[in-house]
Design a protein that fits this description.
This protein is an alpha/beta fold. The protein is built from twelve helices and 24 strands. It has a seven-stranded mixed β-sheet. Strands 17, 18, 19, 22, 23 and 24 form a six-stranded parallel β-sheet that branches. A five-stranded mixed β-sheet has the order 12-13-14-15-16, with no helix packed on it. Bound molecules: flavin mononucleotide.
Length: about 400
């Protein structure tokens, strides 16, 4: 077995995208991989493809192992283009392959690439026999697209989970026992927070469904990043915790500022929180990335958001942040808003309205200071932080 083998005859044939730093707005400081798996048996199956800009390298890699014409099945677990955009070229060259996708996957393939190749559909429980091993399909709608599906290699107990359990992490290594655990978990939680956070109840239900099916994977091989083989239950347990919004005694203070008054308020609020023993992260928009702020929020109990008033509105970076966070629907957080203004006010009101519409739990009426906070104002901010800390601890 070489370093790319999951098991005898099961090969990673993905590609490493070392230099991608912006993945549809998700900041990927460590790059990513597009994982594809080639299963050699009496019949040959390829599970998922790679982003089309890497299709030549991908085809070369497969051809080092087998002729493309010998591939019997191409399984498309998910139609998002990072995994499917090499399908048109490989489908043309792998002339004898049957393409398999979920019903929604079939529709999405046609909607992306036209009606150019025949596609067979699979539903949960359907199997194909490769000779010495079977592939079983498990539909996973909205994890994270309607078409999403997992492929389970029954005999080896390998779950090819597509985007679930993935991480944006480029590495020369393929397996979890080969890289630093804290790096792996940092990228796994960032991935969960930014991609799967709004789908928490579906995540926990799908995990329970898989357990009920009697599936207990020995290896979980996602479509991005590192393969979990040393202890796959670790990432399953982490997903269960994240999916229910399990939080620590932690607050995240997010803000922006033009002339630093809201910054001074944010620092005083943070001191108040810390004085009560609450772990607190103070993050300024336009310095910190939304990708990282969202990840911090996943495990926090309270989120305190500050903005100066600009033209009777919140500062624009807050608009982008609130658009992103309300879409991600973090569960079970306590919310509060603050900011400095000059005459009309407006920022705290407009942020609060957005949070109310999103159904967030707002724990107080917010805090506003006219222009530059003086000593008394800063004391008020400190106490505001202390009060929130008490709510976090209660
Ligand atoms: C371009 C500009 C527009 C502003 N518009 C408003 C406004 O519509 N209403 C208001 O109450 N204050 C307004 N202000 C005043 C700021 O909210 C005030 O200076 C505040 O203290 C700035 O907080 P900061 O130091 O955190 O940026 C405006 C300030 C600037 C620079």
């Amino acid at each position: 077995m070489n370093e790319n083998c999951l098991s005898n005859g099961i090969n990673w044939v993905g590609v490493i995208d070392w230099n991608i730093r912006d993945f549809h707005g998700y900041i990927t400081r460590r790059g990513t991989t597009y994982n594809s798996y080639l299963i050699l048996d009496k019949k040959i199956a390829l599970v998922d493809t790679v982003k089309s800009s890497f299709s030549k390298e991908f085809l070369d890699k497969i051809q080092e192992i087998t002729d493309l014409e010998k591939i019997d099945y191409i399984i498309i677990n998910h139609v998002e283009m990072d995994h499917s955009s090499s399908l048109p070229i490989i489908a043309e060259l792998a002339k004898n392959a049957t393409i398999i996708a979920s019903q929604r996957g079939k529709e999405a393939i046609i909607e992306h690439y036209g009606e150019n190749f025949p596609i067979k559909t699979a539903k949960t429980g359907d199997e194909i026999d490769l000779g010495n091993r079977r592939l079983r399909f498990i539909e996973a709608p909205m994890l994270h697209w309607p078409d999403s599906m997992f492929t389970y290699i029954v005999e080896e107990k390998i779950l090819l989970s597509n985007d679930a359990f993935g991480q944006h992490l480029a590495s020369a290594f393929r397996f979890d026992d080969e890289i630093e655990e804290n790096v792996l978990m940092e990228e796994a939680i960032t991935y969960y927070a930014n991609i799967l956070m709004p789908l928490g109840s579906l995540v926990s239900r799908k995990i329970q469904e898989i357990v009920k099916m009697g599936i207990s994977p020995k290896i979980i091989a996602p479509s991005h990043g590192i393969i979990w083989r040393s202890n796959p239950s670790k990432i399953i347990q982490a997903y269960l915790d994240w999916s229910i919004g399990k939080s620590k005694m932690k607050a995240v203070v997010v803000f922006d500022t033009m002339w630093n008054s809201t910054n001074d308020m944010a620092r005083a609020i943070t001191k108040g929180l810390i004085s009560e023993g609450v772990e607190t992260k103070l993050l300024k928009l336009r310095s910190a990335e939304n990708t990282d702020i969202i990840t911090e929020i996943l495990t926090a109990k309270a989120v305190i958001v500050g903005s100066p008033t600009l033209n009777q509105q919140m500062f624009p970076s807050l608009g982008a942040f609130l658009t992103y966070i309300t879409g991600l629907k973090p569960r079970g957080k306590l919310w509060s808003f603050f900011g400095s203004y000059g005459w009309s006010r407006g920022a705290v009101k407009s942020m609060t309205e957005i949070a109310k519409r999103a159904g967030f739990e707002i724990i107080n009426s917010g805090l506003e200071v006219k222009y530059v906070p003086n000593k008394d104002d800063l004391k008020m901010c400190f106490d505001f932080g202390k009060e929130i800390a008490k709510k976090i601890k209660s």
